[in-house]
Amino acid sequence: STRMRTPEDISISLTEILPRHKINFVNSKATRLDPGRQTLKLENGETLDYDYLIIATGPRLAFDEVPGANKYPVSVCTTPHASHAAIEVDKLQEDPGPVVVGSMQGSSCFGPAYEFGLLLHSELYKRGGTKLVE
Questions:
Q1: CA nearest to 81, candidates 59, 99, 106, 51
Q2: pLDDT at 117 over 90
Q3: Residue 116 in 3-state DSSP?
Q4: Rounded Cα–Cα distance for residues 4 and 2 (Å)
C-alpha cells in the first residue's frame, strides 16, 4: 500500500512450504463436520480424519453492504487492494489533501486499517515532510 514491499515480496508458494511441515492443504468447501468421529466431509467428495482441525476462513469483505463504499474507499485488506492503494498514495503525494483511515463494521477488516494509518503517515513524511503530513 506504500510500496515498502511488492506482492512478490510477501507471497509464498504453499505447494513448497506446507509439505516440508507435513501439512496437507486442501482447498475445498466443508459440507459436514462430525466432531464425535473427528471427520470433515468436503464438497469435492473427500472425507478427512483429523486430530486437530483448523478452519481458516479469512475475512469476508462486503463493501456493498454500506452505501457508497464501493465507489469511494481505498482498501488494503487484500494484496490487489493494497497494490491499488499504492497508486492512490502516489496521487496523494502529487495532490495532498485530508485522509480518513477507518473500517466499516461488518463489511471490512479492521487490523490493516490501523497499520495502514501508521504506515501512511510515515511514508508521506518520508516523501515530503511537513508539506504532506501535519
A1: 59
A2: no
A3: helix
A4: 6
**Beta bridge mates, 49:** 39
Task: Give Cα 18 to chain centroid, integer Å.
Answer: 20
SS3 of residue 49 by DSSP? strand
How many whole angstroms separate alpha carbon 9 and alpha carbon 126? 21
- Residue pair 44/91 in contact (Cβ under 8 Å)? The answer is no
Nine cell digits for residue 76: 488494503
Q: If pLDDT is split at 50, 70 and 90, which confidence band does 111 have?
A: confident
Distances (CA, A) of 37 to 27, 48, 106: 22, 10, 34
Please tell me the pTM assigned to this model. 0.67
Residue corresponding to grid cell 490493516: 112
- CA 19 vs. chain centroid, Å, equals 24
